[in-house]
Amino acid sequence: MAVKRQPKVHSGVIAVARRVQGLGRSAIVAVLLMLAACGGSGNSSDGGFSSQSSAGVSSSSSQSSISVSSSSSSVSSVPATVNISGTVGFDYVPISKGRGLNYAATRVKPVRLANVYLIDAAGEVVDSSQTDAAGYYTLQAPVNTQVKVQVAAVSESNAAQRWEIRVEDNTMGNALYVLEGQLRSSGTVNSVRDLRAASGWTGSDYTEPRAAGPFAILDSAYMAVQKLAEVDANLTLPVSIFRWSVNNTTAEGLLADGDIVTSFYNGEAVYILGQADVDTDEYDAHVVVHEWSHFFEYRVGQRSNSIGGDHSGLDKLDMRVAYSEGFANGIAGYVLSDPEYQDSFRLGQEYSAGVDLSRKDVLDAGWYSETSIQTIFYHLADSGAFEEIYGVLTDALYTAVPAFTSIFSFADIMATRYPAAFPVLDTLMSEQSITGRDQFGAGETNSGGTNGVLPLYVDLLPDGSETTVCSTQINGSYNKLGIHQFLKTTVLSGDNYQLVVENNGDRIEPTDPDVAGSRNALQWRGDSGVSDSEVLNLNLQGGTTYAFSVNDYAEHIDAQSAGYQPACFNVSLTPQ
The CATH number of the domain where 135 resides is what? Predict the structure, then answer.
């Protein structure tokens, strides 16, 4: 019987991203794994695959089969240099709906705009180039010189549009993956060296190194970046870093050991599962682009207030989480021109679970449903409005909105900046029972059957008067609808203020209130652990609107206990 499950949940933890430098032209290091090459002219099959770092650490990680051929002609004199050219490809294994990876349908896809290096026997870079959109490259070598071709798992552009994608091995010190051919003489005539990264699958198992994995990830990310390039002639992106290993599994522990739990983005890099017979994601293109979309939202849009955590399409979620996860799903479907999101897993990668991102008949639709949000973004992008989506996320107005990021903050800026495209969004939101349109969700009537969540933002007067909000675990813990309650205030006079959150006494058991504040990104957090009270001293600007979230950590980090009661708090903001 086929085993079905919901697509895996992806949790995100926002952190400060860093740029990783590209592979230096003089810093190519020795590779430990190499296959012996056949000598002489004619066709041969050889090659190796490794991961390496710019710090000079290398390790064997996988290998490929590489075919090398040469052609000769009569020449009257020996040239000083010859061309070495060829194509670089990788084994692409498609996924079948509900049936996992279809190895029988494996085909070779080109490795596009990847960095290619010609390395001599001393490990020095003789020449460098890039593959083109068909995977073709050309390098120049001195005649009769021992050289090999290396292809780094780096795709980049340094022209008018600037971007870089890297695939690294988090279990090998974040070493960069490299595909390489065998060291051979360049000869005296032009020659062809084709490189192919093999899947490693030999009929019933991965019995050969999985060289194609990093390049499959690179290809999915490349497709995503090209969608941005189509709408921004001056595109400039931070480096997209992916970290994948055959050791990356669902265990919880150290990232350096491969215990990553799930594929996720943490603000620095995207981590991708890779342990065979458990959960591999390198060929699950929707998963890869989903996680890249979190990078897009956070590093390109420079704004995400998602608190991450476990989630599924059936959950009623915190509005920030529903927005971020639904956005990532919808954009993945659009980028790949495929609304059928599939995620493979288990023994032999024979199973997969998925969802049709284009479906509009959503169970329990609303602003708290990632399923509602994903169909909104998929259809909005598919209608021809991807440029407008990109425009909203990169707009300074969007970055600066006081409200936390949600479908409401997105709709607010879409209506302001792109009034011609907004009616499509307006219709899609209405179809998903979402009635609010301004950044604070004013006018929203859908509570998701949860008391106390409407209005989405409760007004907090900056005069010391108290406002009561209640944190409820009716829909689950941590990131579910009702856990976090939102408030907004407009400060007329700039001054020092004290924000106080106190248990109002309705619940006898102790509470542990936490509070977070925002004007355009997360700016303040109060999570002292003091029972029943949290105090923040803030310096606020006059004429400015601020947003706050309040929740009870004590009762909502775990499942409901017997006799559970919601936690209610009195909140005040007092000038000092």
Answer: 2.60.40.10
* Same structural domain, 457 and 537: yes
**pTM recorded for the entire structure:** 0.88
First to last CA, the chain: 67
pLDDT in tens, 449-469: 999 999 999 999 999 999 999
| Sign of CA pseudo-dihedral 157, 65, 288, 169 | negative
For residues 433 and 462, state if they share a domain. Answer: no
Q: Which helix (H) or strand (E) holds 233?
A: none
Cα distances (angstroms) measured from residue 260 to each of 41, 244, 266, 353: 46, 10, 11, 20
The residue among 48, 70, 68 whose CA lies nearest residue 59 is: 48
| Residue 561: per-residue pLDDT | 61
Specify the length of the chain in residues. 576
- Domain boundary residue, one of 446, 478, 498: 446
User: Cβ(154)–Cβ(176) under 8 Å?
Assistant: yes
Do residues 211 and 66 share a domain?
yes
In this structure, what token pair is assigned to residue 177? 């993956």
Res. 562 pLDDT band, cuts 50 70 90? low
Tokens (6 digits) for 321: 């989480």
Nearest to 575, CA basis, from 480, 453, 464, 450 = 464
- Considering the domain architecture, whether residues 46 and 83 belong to the same structural domain is answered as yes
Q: What share of the chain in percent tops pLDDT 90?
A: 80
Round to whole Å and give the CA distance between 155 and 112. 7
Residues 7, 91: one domain? no
The Cα 497–Cα 552 span in angstroms is: 22
Q: Is residue 182 domain-shared with residue 323, that is, in the same domain?
A: no
- Could you tell me the CATH number of the domain that includes residue 534? 2.60.120.1220
Task: Give me the number of domains the chain comprises.
Answer: 3
Place of tokens 């309040």: 550
Which residue, 367, 369, 344, 365, is CA-closest to 354? Answer: 344
Domain span holding position 53: 24-71+79-224
Based on the fold, state whether residues 11 and 28 are members of the same structural domain: no
Single residue among 398, 422, 446 that ends a domain in this structure: 446
pLDDT in tens, 204-216: 999 999 999 999 9
Does residue 430 fall inside a structural domain?
yes
Which residues of 54-171 form beta strands (DSSP E)? 58-62, 65-70, 81-92, 95-96, 100-101, 107-110, 114-120, 125-130, 136-142, 146-158, 162-169
Question: Is position 254 within any domain?
Answer: no
Task: Identify the weakest region by mean pLDDT among 42-46, 74-78, 366-370, 518-522.
Answer: 42-46
Q: Is the peptide bond before 455 cis (omega within 30 degrees of 0)?
A: yes
Residues 367-421 pLDDT 10s:
999 999 999 999 999 999 999 999 999 999 999 999 999 999 999 999 999 999 9
Is 392 domain-assigned? yes
Q: Which residues neighbour 430 within 8 Å (Cβ) at sequence distance 6 or greater? A: none
pLDDT tens for 20-62 read 223 332 222 323 232 222 222 333 334 455 554 332 323 333 3
Residue 438 sits in the same domain as residue 456: no
